[in-house]
């Protein structure tokens, strides 16, 4: 993926998080971030400076032993203790040493500034004698998720002897920076000029062609048919959130009726599939996945339209929209999110697909990376014709895969 220049400040909006005592605000956390409204939590990205202040208002003198501000990040798996991977603390006020250990009395109003610089990476232990550097992961919290990633700003007011400390904390969102390398020269030209995309037959540098995959089935319960299909995915295989993934699908068969039926855009099942791995082997791309630590679901379904036909082949062009809210790819100890583009067997009236020899319902699968921003100077275009709509949500992936549902958890019948 491409190299990013990171921002050093986040100054769009000031948030205020108050704490009341006896019906009055006596402690408040003020912080600036990239968020654009009060309805959003503070938002930061890698390399940002997190600046703000702690405000206190004491109606009467009160002994305080110290005031700190901390930034903390941690991962939590259901049923396990949180693992802290980021923990940076600043002391914004401390008593005069001459006051002794019992603290110093504060009265009136106080505004105590602080400033942190978010690191781009943290060092994590993988085993007893092995450590590695990892980019900070994005925050992650979904209903019924087996794992969570949280970031918090924490203010602690340390009080006098026998008095409990006062803690004010609030979560914030973290977005790592990632971008793809630029697409092929021909695709960039098409984006700039508004002309059609050139397919893999003439732009070989611009596409990864997966396949061919063989598919067999029965047509109208009468005759057996066979075909081959290839799925071309635009390269590089990395795509920003809120952008289209260009696709071409070629289907070949000696049976022209089968071609006509299965090349119908509604028969094609291509999905962006998210896999969530947790546990000790989450960082291992080749680990054997088990249903208790590997969770798979659709993040979107492609739409196709026909563009050419020959006697023994049909070609369709398609797009798969990476929707807003899709989390970027990341790999972190005990928690990783990866993506593939999967072609499943065709579904059309009168056609019954045979069971795949290996029992895997996926015809073709290609690993892709979801990024957070575009390559510099590249603005992807959508080529979906009027009247064609991208399927809502994840499409009909669950039905196509025959997934078992257990609450909101979804498990494969098989583990790839």
From TrEMBL:
InterPro entries: Arrestin-like_C (IPR014752), Arrestin-like_N (IPR011021), Ig_E-set (IPR014756)
Domain Arrestin-like N-terminal, chain residue ranges per copy: 41-159
Domain of life the protein comes from: Eukaryota
Protein name as annotated: Arrestin-like N-terminal domain-containing protein
């Amino acid at each position: 993926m491409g190299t990013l220049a990171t921002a050093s400040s986040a100054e769009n909006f000031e948030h205020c998080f108050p704490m009341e005592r006896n019906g009055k605000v006596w402690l408040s956390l003020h912080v600036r971030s990239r968020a654009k409204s009060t309805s959003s939590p503070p938002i930061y990205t890698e390399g940002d400076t997190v600046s703000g202040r702690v405000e206190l208002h004491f109606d009467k003198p009160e002994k305080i032993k110290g005031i700190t501000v901390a930034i903390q990040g941690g991962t939590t798996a259901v049923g396990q203790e949180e693992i802290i991977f980021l923990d940076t603390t600043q002391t914004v006020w401390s008593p005069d040493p001459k006051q002794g250990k019992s603290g110093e009395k504060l009265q009136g109003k106080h505004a105590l500034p602080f400033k942190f610089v978010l690191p781009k990476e943290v060092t994590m232990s993988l085993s007893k004698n092995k450590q590695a550097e990892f980019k900070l992961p994005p925050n992650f919290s979904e209903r019924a998720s087996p794992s969570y990633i949280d970031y918090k700003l924490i203010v602690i007011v340390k009080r006098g002897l026998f008095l409990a400390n006062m803690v004010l904390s609030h979560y914030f969102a973290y977005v790592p920076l990632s971008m793809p390398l630029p697409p092929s020269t021909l695709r960039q030209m098409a984006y700039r000029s508004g002309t059609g995309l050139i397919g893999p037959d003439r732009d070989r540098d611009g596409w990864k062609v997966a396949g061919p995959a063989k598919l067999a089935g029965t047509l109208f319960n009468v005759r057996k048919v066979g075909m081959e299909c290839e799925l071309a995915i635009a390269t590089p295989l990395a795509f920003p959130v809120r952008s289209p993934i260009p696709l071409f699908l070629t289907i070949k068969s000696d049976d022209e009726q089968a071609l006509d039926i299965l090349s119908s855009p509604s028969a094609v099942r291509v999905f962006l599939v998210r896999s969530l791995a947790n546990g000790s082997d989450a960082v291992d791309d080749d680990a054997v996945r088990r249903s208790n630590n590997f969770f798979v679901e659709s993040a979107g379904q492609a739409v196709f339209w026909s563009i050419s036909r020959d006697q023994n082949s049909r070609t369709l062009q398609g797009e798969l929209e990476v929707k807003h809210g899709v989390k970027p790819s990341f790999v972190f100890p005990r928690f990783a999110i990866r993506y593939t583009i999967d072609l499943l067997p065709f579904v059309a009236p009168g056609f019954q697909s045979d069971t795949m020899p290996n029992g895997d319902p996926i015809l073709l699968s290609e690993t892709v990376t979801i990024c957070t921003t575009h390559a510099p100077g590249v603005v992807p275009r959508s080529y979906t014709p009027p009247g064609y709509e991208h399927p809502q949500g994840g499409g009909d992936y669950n039905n196509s895969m025959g997934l078992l549902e257990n609450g909101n958890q979804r498990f494969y019948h098989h583990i790839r």
